[in-house]
Specification:
It is found in: Endoplasmic reticulum membrane. With 486 residues, the protein is mainly α. The protein folds into two domains: 128 residues; 226 residues, no CATH class. The protein contains 17 helices and five strands. It is globular, with a radius of gyration of 26 Å.
Length: 486
């Protein structure tokens, strides 16, 4: 059942939603229902409050965190005579936080500067609209020409603003590398602000040219939208009655705990395999393959922690602070057996923006296939942009995995996933584990190869260093033996 169909079914208890999206009830007049935003909780919030089984899994992850802390405590104490508790990767990852803050303030300033620009554009369009009349012969210039010129000027100003928002931080990070976590903050925020500005532009610019249309949003509402956990602009969102600060504190505590959780995973189970990569001129292929497989389980746990940290804890904390009532930031993607449904359910915040602003406008012009391909490529390019600027090198592993293999999985699982949901849910989890294992191996390989290998004239931002240093060789006395011979 689709989301709209499910909504109509749930709403039938109180009334009926007609084809135009109006809620009809015997005791009240018709009112508009926005099908995109409804008061609802996140799936994990519901499951944790209603299912003892899911709550037990949540407690298992907390217990694993405690065991990891004890393991790190004992290992550091016995081996080094000091206690680190995963603090050093966190400090290193969020290094140069002052520069990160300055770049973020620059991005925020440009996002705020868009609002007075929108007001000026709306004022100019209104003035031109009032004076628009059929121009007599030989009377230059025509009001229609002035209106077209004003629209062109507005589009150029918007392009310049978005160009500065995306270009200046990218140039600064390309000029001088920032720590990994700090770089992620800068790049993700610049993309988030750009998507929000575009959403407001699409919603509000037609109002500037329409006579007697909906007024432009107030600055207060625009500021609310900049920090609301959504990328789709609306004049009104469903709101809760009050902020539960205890819930906010709990979610922020979860964010901090997961940051250290990932730090423990990297420090104890991933970095030991790759931190010395490139210090020796040669490395055996068997060691590389063994390290990749050893990183599969830590990587999938890190992947799940990242999902919970960003799409559940962080977004729910902001939703609670801003009394934003629609908490459906994701769906039950872990039960999916079709990759098309997985991509829609994994991150509904980004998916909704791509659907409304890329896919739907392209379908009438290019068709469904080309529109889908465009969405995948745009999403893959921006994912790779974040990684390239954060790591300090271009290594398009995610671009290939997401933009090529991820796209191929959509038609491959479309039919079989419906016919054999159990089997293909297993296939989906298997591919996620293998894919994350490769990502959590290949990017550290390249990072430490650039750090540990000697500098050479051929070093480049775009040419992978790990392809030439160190040399990957087979074991000198390696031979294939019959496994059934004893």
């Amino acid at each position: 059942m689709s989301e709209d169909s499910a909504l109509r079914s749930r709403s039938s208890k109180k009334g009926d939603i007609n084809q135009n999206g109006h809620l009809q009830n015997k005791n009240e007049k018709k009112k508009w229902v926005d099908m995109s935003f409804l008061p609802r909780e996140s799936p994990l919030t519901v499951l944790l409050s209603t299912s003892l089984h899911i709550r037990a899994i949540y407690h298992i992850f907390i217990a694993i965190l405690i065991i990891l802390m004890m393991d790190t405590f004992m290992y550091d104490f016995v081996e080094f005579g000091k206690i680190k508790l995963g603090v050093y990767p966190v400090i290193y990852g969020f290094g140069d936080i002052g520069r990160c803050g300055r770049l973020w303030l620059f991005e925020l300033a440009l996002a705020l500067a868009f609002y007075p620009g929108l007001r000026v554009y709306g004022l100019g369009a209104r003035v031109l609209r009032k004076h628009t009349a059929p121009a007599p012969p030989r009377r230059p210039p025509s009001p229609r020409v002035l209106s077209a010129a004003w629209s062109t000027l507005g589009a150029a100003a918007l392009a310049a603003l978005l160009g500065a928002l995306l270009g200046v931080p990218s140039w600064d990070l390309g000029r001088r590398h920032l720590a990994l976590a700090s770089g992620c903050i800068v790049t993700l925020e610049m993309i988030r602000f750009a998507m929000k500005i575009y959403a407001v532009t699409v919603a509000c610019v037609p109002r500037c040219h329409a006579a007697g249309g909906t007024p432009l949003p107030s600055f207060r509402h625009y500021l609310y939208f900049l920090f609301a956990p959504t990328l789709l602009y609306r004049d009104k969102y469903p709101r809760t009655e009050k902020t539960r600060w205890g819930v906010v504190a709990l979610h922020l505590l979860e964010v901090v705990a997961i940051i250290f959780y990932n730090s423990f995973l990297w420090e104890r189970f991933i970095l030991p395999y790759w931190s010395d990569y490139g210090k020796e001129p040669q490395v055996q292929l068997g060691r590389v393959v063994q390290a990749m497989f050893a990183c599969v389980l830590p990587s999938i746990i890190s992947f799940l922690c990242g999902f919970y940290c960003v799409l559940h804890a962080w977004l729910n904390a902001f939703a609670e602070m801003l009394t934003f009532a629609d908490r459906l930031f994701y769906e039950e993607w872990w039960t999916m057996s079709e990759y098309s449904k997985y991509y829609r359910a994994w991150n509904r915040v980004v998916y909704a923006w791509l659907r409304d602003h890329i896919y739907i406008p392209l379908v009438p012009r290019a068709g469904r296939s080309l529109a889908t391909l465009s969405v995948f490529l745009i999403s893959a390019v921006f994912h790779e942009l974040v990684l390239a600027l954060s790591f300090g090198f271009f290594y398009p592993v995610l671009l290939v995995m997401f933009g090529v293999f991820g796209l191929l999985c959509v038609p491959l699982t479309a039919t079989c996933g419906r016919l054999f949901p159990g089997v293909f849910n297993l296939v989906m989890w298997l591919t996620l584990m293998v894919g994350n294992g490769l990502l959590w191996s290949l990017y550290p390989m390249e990072y430490f190869a650039r750090k540990n290998c000697p500098a050479s004239p051929g070093d480049s931002f775009f040419v992978p260093k790990s392809w030439s240093c160190p040399e990957i060789v087979m074991k000198s006395n390696w031979t294939f033996n019959n496994p059934f011979t004893f």
